[in-house]
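Re: [ENG-882] Designed sequences occasionally contain unexpected residues at chain ends

Forwarding the minimal case from QA. Structure tokens:
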């Protein structure tokens, strides 16, 4: 379904311009001047989809969520493109909610509120008022986020009822996957994030330019998960673009070739593939069916100091050096609390930290520690300086054998997602849409 341009009334300088000449080619000025601009205080309908209105306010409030997640680093040109994409997403969301009502799939307000409260808990320690205030402050609203939650819940329930029961995976298929995994034992597998933008021969150059701009925003600190949710046309968009653990052979050749040369945390793309362009993020990598040291369960103590406002770099360096020397003198985790108290430092203990959940730069450093040792100090004047002390470590005994039920569920999910794309495409095709 093509997206109509969102424009107001426009006139051009230099007299009247004919719509087209005898050959059918449009005669349009290179630099049209617009005599009417959109009034942000006049919130008219942007799109009416099957009788339901999507307004400029709806778009702006949803865009505000993405801008905040990207650290307010989105430029004006990117912002306009983001608004168009958010409009497309709101249209899909509206279709999904409408289809749920038609199919008598009910999402109670209490269920939406419960999910909203969980988001508040994860971000604001169960403080709903703080969550509400934050959304208002960034230019969004609780209603906007709750509508997005309702759309996701509606679509998930529709797929469970109308698609999932008709997807079958035979035992033989699962056994074939397990056999291939066992034959691949010790080879690399990768956890990959993807953003896929579809393209045709006609719009390929424009889509490629859009993809390049997304990569630029990601390199400047934009949230990959946020961009995947809003821009990706793959079924993984709902989970922030996470493809899960895959092997090179499961990807198109173009993507597999790029993947093998990537480092953890690196971006690749846009890479042209069949049907469009892909942007990839290498989240992690490991060896198939092989114990990974990063699965070790660690007991850590984090000791941190902060700097008063106005502290200079030399002053911070001197204090950090003194802090590091004191930590090196600590003889094991039993004495660190007393030493930290003498320094006015804060101690936080985590008894169940997987090494792979640490930042990538810290993983090899922490795994190289012996019990009672600390990392070199790290941090900044703004955030303070901290060290990690290793208090315990339980290494993984052996790699887990493939789980039949988990693999079966993974294959089912892949097939459900493919059918979900077809389902949504049909809803778009049958929709009655009026643009303002």
């Amino acid at each position: 379904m093509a997206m109509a341009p969102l424009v107001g009334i426009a006139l051009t300088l230099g007299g009247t311009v004919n719509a087209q000449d005898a050959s059918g080619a449009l005669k349009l000025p290179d630099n049209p001047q617009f005599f009417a601009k959109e009034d942000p205080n006049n919130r008219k309908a942007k799109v009416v989809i099957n009788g339901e209105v999507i307004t400029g306010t709806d778009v702006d409030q949803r865009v505000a969520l993405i801008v905040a997640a990207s650290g307010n680093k989105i430029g004006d040109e990117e912002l306009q493109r983001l608004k168009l994409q958010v409009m497309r997403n709101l249209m899909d969301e509206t279709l999904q909610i409408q289809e749920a009502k038609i199919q008598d799939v009910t999402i109670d307000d209490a269920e939406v509120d419960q999910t909203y409260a969980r988001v508040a808990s994860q971000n604001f320690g169960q403080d709903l008022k703080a969550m509400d205030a934050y959304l208002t402050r960034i230019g969004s609203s609780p209603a906007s986020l709750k509508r997005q939650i309702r759309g996701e819940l509606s679509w998930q329930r529709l797929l469970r009822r109308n698609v999932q029961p008709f997807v079958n995976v035979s035992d033989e298929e699962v056994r074939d996957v397990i056999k291939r995994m066992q034959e691949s034992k010790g080879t690399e597998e990768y956890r990959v994030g993807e953003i896929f933008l579809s393209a045709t021969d006609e719009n390929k150059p424009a889509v490629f330019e859009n993809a390049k701009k997304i990569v630029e925003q990601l390199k400047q600190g934009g949230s990959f998960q946020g961009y995947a949710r809003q821009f990706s046309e793959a079924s993984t968009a709902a989970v922030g673009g996470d493809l899960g653990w895959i092997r090179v052979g499961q990807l198109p050749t173009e993507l597999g070739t790029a993947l093998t040369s990537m480092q953890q945390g690196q971006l690749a793309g846009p890479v042209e593939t069949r049907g469009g362009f892909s942007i990839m993020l290498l989240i992690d990598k490991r060896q198939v069916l092989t114990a990974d040291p990063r699965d070790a369960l660690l007991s850590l103590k984090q000791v941190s100091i902060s700097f008063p406002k106005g502290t200079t770099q030399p002053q911070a360096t001197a204090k950090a050096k003194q802090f590091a020397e004191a930590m090196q003198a600590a003889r094991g985790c039993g004495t660190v609390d007393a030493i930290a108290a003498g320094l006015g430092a804060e101690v936080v203990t985590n008894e169940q930290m997987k090494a792979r959940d640490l930042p990538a730069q810290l993983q090899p450093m922490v795994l190289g520690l012996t019990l009672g040792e600390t990392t070199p100090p790290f941090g900044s004047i703004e955030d303070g300086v901290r060290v990690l002390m290793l208090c315990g470590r339980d290494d993984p005994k052996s790699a887990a054998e493939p789980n039949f039920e988990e693999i079966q569920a993974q294959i089912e999910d892949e097939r459900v997602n493919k059918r979900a794309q077809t389902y949504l495409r049909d809803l778009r095709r049958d929709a009655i849409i009026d643009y303002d």
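QA comment: On inspection the terminal residues look reasonable. The longest helix spans residues 76-102. Proposing we downgrade this to a documentation issue.
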